[in-house]
Amino acid sequence: MSRAFRVLEAVGQSPRGLTVKQIARRCELTVATTYHLVRTLAYEGYVMRREDGTYIVGLEVADRYRELVLACRGPQQVQDVLRRAAVDSGYTHMVGRFINGRVAIVACAEGMRSPQVDDLVAGFDDGAHATALGKALVATLSADHRWRFLKEQGMPAYTPQTLTSLEALDADLAAGERRGLHIEVNQFRTGLAGAAVLVVADREQERRVALGCTVPAADMMASAKTIRTRLVATAQQLAEALREG
């Protein structure tokens, strides 16, 4: 089993794909053993063979990750709180937490007034530096830990307004901590803004929980105080739901 995990990890770290011989070299296995492991993983759907003979991660991995995300969502009351907030405000609300060292959305309820963004759904675990939800969680890391986290995850520019330097992000996080609300405007998608607050500030990283909402960029500029008031109230309801769960 451990050898199969080594093979899967090697493939997962190589988005361009690997041949059986390349996998064997990286995992320090014989080609025959590697071929057997890869064939088994492919049969189970954990890796896929492309036309050029290389292997990439299969859809089964994504399915298992989604199951993990759903397991971390918490009790049904969490989804109920998000749904009520989405209906009352019209804005999409979501819960995020650290999963396997990454910031991931674990629950989401869509609001009619929020711009439609296909990426921001349960299971999404990229762009922590460019989303308000990600910022609320990244802000809980120590300076050294945050530097390592962002170096590993990267800080790609989703829009011209995305913060792509550690210094700029640190200043933005500090401002968010002072105001008690982390925000982003046009940093993840043009025309989209987000706001987020921390719900659970636990010593254990994996137990920290944040609540965020997405709104039209124009709404954030005009109604930031109202959005903050509603978000804080929803965060209190969410914290209670998590304690009861």
From TrEMBL:
* The keyword DNA-binding belongs to this UniProt entry's keyword annotation: yes
* Residue stretches making up the IclR-ED domain: 53-245
* Xref: SUPFAM superfamilies: GAF domain-like, Winged helix' DNA-binding domain
Tell me the Gene Ontology biological-process terms attached to this UniProt entry.
Answer: negative regulation of DNA-templated transcription
Q: Give the record's keywords alphabetically.
A: DNA-binding, Transcription, Transcription regulation
- Indicate yes or no for the key word Oxidoreductase: no
Domain HTH iclR-type positions: 1-59
Protein name, per record: Transcriptional regulator
Q: What would you give as a GO molecular function for this chain, any one? A: DNA-binding transcription factor activity
**Organism of derivation:** Virgisporangium aliadipatigenens
Source species, domain of life: Bacteria
